[in-house]
């Protein structure tokens, strides 16, 4: 009973703490000298800076997810099936981005990028130019892929642990499935939820990332949002509201996916017990 | 008026803002440990005559301590490493190592300080390793009760 009575106030204070700033931001965007107006949303959100930077962020995010999955799905499957001894090493490698703070990572990246001047006469100069292309900075895709490794690894590792992949593969092979058939029709469907979970988390990370992009001088959505605040504060906050909605949407999607997974494992547990 | 003094562009404001991403982090780290508290323990304690307070003091809190400490260490590491919030909220008015690194890289204060940025980054990595070295054993210790 005592728990019931203390739960309300605690939840109330937490709700106040989390909701008051959001409500204040919302009020700030619609409060104008002539009363309440939604001008910022109707005009500003269609502005060129917002759409280009948002599209840039989304394309960087999708490229990051694609590159990360291309790297991690074969790695984790290979480790689970063939190279269990390497598991520990892969895990440590993938957790490295948690040890190296993004700002320290970007210090190293900036140093590497500064080699460009010394390479001016070599063909590598063009490679560097492509890396720092303003509209689609490949370097951000690479750095974000490294930063998303922990998410992808954790999600894929949990997914692989929840199924007995080795037995499934052996069963498929003994039933006459070819190696590619096994990978595509047995392994892939079992990993779908883990892949989606890792991808959504990585995407949310990229869409909100500020430090790396701003230090390297690129302008994806988060950086644009901060920069535009200097001249158009209302638009900046309105964009923040938009990004909040976007991230919430992504995370809701993730929860829905995760919910599907727990239901499945629960029902599986019930049938086995 | 107290409202005139209330500003978030200070150290206090930074702490208040950091709490925003610390609370979810702590919840995610500590919730599994709370799930691991079995109702049988409470019942056993109650049937031995323990009050609710005694249960928490002698059983609940000791079992949860490793994961609470682990969560605290993890939060310290995250707060130490974060840059974006501080950069946007307080800019240069609160001197954090992450902001110093960004300034050195951008040449905001002095040009040609890339080496300094790298040195400070290495310091940050050392602190992060220290955090990991404390956090991983704590995590193992707390996992003992979750089986």
UniProtKB/TrEMBL annotation, chain A:
Gene3D superfamilies: MetI-like. SUPFAM superfamilies: MetI-like (SSF161098). The keyword Cell cycle does not apply. It is found in: Cell inner membrane; Cell membrane. It comes from the Bacteria. Residues 54-254 form the ABC transmembrane type-1 domain. The keyword Phosphoprotein does not apply. Its main location: membrane. The chain crosses the membrane at residues 60-81, 93-116, 136-153, 194-218, 238-260. It is a multi-pass membrane protein. Pfam families: BPD_transp_1. InterPro entries: MetI-like, MetI-like_sf. Keywords: Cell inner membrane, Cell membrane, Membrane, Transmembrane, Transmembrane helix, Transport. Belongs to the binding-protein-dependent transport system permease family. This is ABC transporter permease subunit. It comes from Streptomyces cavernicola.
């Amino acid at each position: 009973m005592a728990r019931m009575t203390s739960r309300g106030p605690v939840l109330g204070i937490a709700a106040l703490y989390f909701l008051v700033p959001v409500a204040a931001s919302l009020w700030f965007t619609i409060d104008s000298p002539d009363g309440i107006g939604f001008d910022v949303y109707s005009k500003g959100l269609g502005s060129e800076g917002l759409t280009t930077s948002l599209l840039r962020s989304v394309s960087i995010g999708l490229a990051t997810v694609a590159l990360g999955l291309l790297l991690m799905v074969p790695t984790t499957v290979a480790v689970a099936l063939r190279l269990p001894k390497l598991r520990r090493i892969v895990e440590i490698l993938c957790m490295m981005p948690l040890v190296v703070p993004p700002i320290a990572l970007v210090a190293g990246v900036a140093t590497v990028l500064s080699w460009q001047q010394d390479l001016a006469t070599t063909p590598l100069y063009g490679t560097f130019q492509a890396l720092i292309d303003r509209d689609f900075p490949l370097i951000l895709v690479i750095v974000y892929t490294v930063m998303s490794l922990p998410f992808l690894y954790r999600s894929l590792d949990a997914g692989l642990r929840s199924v007995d992949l080795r037995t499934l593969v052996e069963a498929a092979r003994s039933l006459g499935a070819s190696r590619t058939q096994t990978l595509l029709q047995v392994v892939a469907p079992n990993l779908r939820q883990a892949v989606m979970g890792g991808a959504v988390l990585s995407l949310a990370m990229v869409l909100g990332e500020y430090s790396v992009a701003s230090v390297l001088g690129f302008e994806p959505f988060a950086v644009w949002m901060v920069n535009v605040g200097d001249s158009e504060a209302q638009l900046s906050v309105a964009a923040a509201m938009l990004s909040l909605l976007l991230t919430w949407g992504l995370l809701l999607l993730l929860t829905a996916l995760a919910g599907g997974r727990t239901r499945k494992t629960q029902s599986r547990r019930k049938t086995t017990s | 008026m107290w409202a005139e003094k209330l500003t978030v562009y200070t150290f206090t404001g930074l702490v208040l803002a950091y709490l925003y991403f610390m609370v979810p982090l702590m919840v995610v780290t500590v919730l599994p440990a709370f799930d691991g508290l079995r109702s049988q323990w409470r019942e056993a304690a109650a049937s031995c005559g323990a009050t609710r307070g005694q249960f928490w003091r002698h059983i609940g809190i000791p079992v949860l301590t490793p994961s609470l400490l682990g969560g605290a260490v993890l939060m310290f590491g995250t707060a130490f490493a974060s840059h974006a919030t501080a950069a946007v909220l307080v800019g240069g008015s609160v001197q954090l190592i992450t902001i110093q690194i960004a300034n050195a890289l951008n040449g905001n204060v002095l040009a040609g300080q890339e080496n300094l940025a790298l040195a400070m980054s290495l310091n940050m990595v050392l602190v992060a390793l220290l955090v990991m070295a404390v956090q991983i054993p704590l995590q193992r210790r707390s996992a003992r009760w979750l089986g």
